[in-house]
Amino acid sequence: EKFESWCLNKNVLQAYDYDLSEEFILDRDENVESSYEKLQQLIGLDLVKKQIDTILAADIVEKERKKRKGKSYKSSSMHMIFGGNPGTAKTTVAKIFGGIAKEKGILKSGSFVECGGMDLDGMACAYKIRKAFQAAQGGVLFIDEAYSIKSDTAATVLIQEMENQRDNVIVILAGYNERMQEFLEINEGMKSRVPHWIEFPDYSADELTDILKLMMSDRGFDATDDAIKEAHY
Q1: How many CB atoms lie within 10 A of CB 172?
Q2: How many CA atoms lie within 13 A of 214 on its CB side?
Q3: CA 228, CA 209: separation in Å to the nearest integer?
Q4: Which residue in 23, 27, 24, 78 sits closest to 51, CA to CA?
Q5: Secondary element (H or E) of residue 91
Q6: Measuring CA to CA, which residue among 56, 192, 80 is closest to residue 141?
Q7: How much is the average pLDDT of 205-210?
């Protein structure tokens, strides 16, 4: 894969006005399911899918604005909050979004780094936060229970890195809706750097039953209709 792009760089593209610092986004195998397709196939989450479509559309508009206004134009960040109860697929969607962002050319690597808010607080918090951003270069940094970040130093460093790395890392802060709202109200700087809030609703009984059937099928299990009805109940 690298050899093909190197040949283009060396023999073809140097003859044209081309920014060699830009990395190639190689076409994926058509037989491999895309991350966007994986998102659409998740059970339920219709509002979440629509909101992600809106965010992707907004990025296209931002790229066009930057193209027309030049490098001086400062596009908005794509940091976001995933709010909802445990078990509502926040982590799963965050991982898939990293893949989508790579496919759409928003991020370079599509890597996914997960940590808890408590992991980034306390002693040596500045070092731990910067190390997390370094590991997530070109991808997504997912911080679960972000409201566990209590110290002013940790919050300040996190805000700084979110601003400095806005073009290289997308930060997704996750947790209960109410506590995430309180977290933003405590720190105004954080609120201004997170333009997107995606709310994850609880699954309905029908959706949970469909998820159960899917999990059973993946593991080669089967169940009687009575057992499925009991599980639904």
Answers
A1: 27
A2: 10
A3: 7
A4: 78
A5: helix 90-103
A6: 80
A7: 95
CA–CA separation, 118 vs 146, rounded Å? 8
Amino acid at 91: T
SS3 84: strand
- Output the pTM of the full model: 0.81
User: Would you say the C-alpha torsion 58, 85, 201, 219 has a positive or negative sign?
Assistant: positive
pLDDT digits (tens, 9 = 90+) for 33-80: 899 999 999 999 999 999 999 999 998 888 888 888 877 777 788 999
With b meaning 16 or more CB within 10 Å and e meaning fewer, what string describes 32-63?
eeebbeebeebebbeebbebbeebbeebeebe
Q: Which of 97, 82, 45, 98 is nearest to 211 (CA)?
A: 45
Tell me the backbone φ, ψ of residue 170, rounded to 5 degrees: -100, 120
DSSP label of 70: -
The pLDDT, as a whole number, for residue 94 is 96
Higher-confidence residue of 15 and 85: namely: 85
pLDDT grade for 185, boundaries at 50, 70 and 90: confident
Average pLDDT rounded to a whole number, residues 153-179: 93
How do the residues of the chain divide into helix, strand and coil, expressed in percent and rounded to 5? Answer: 55, 10, 35
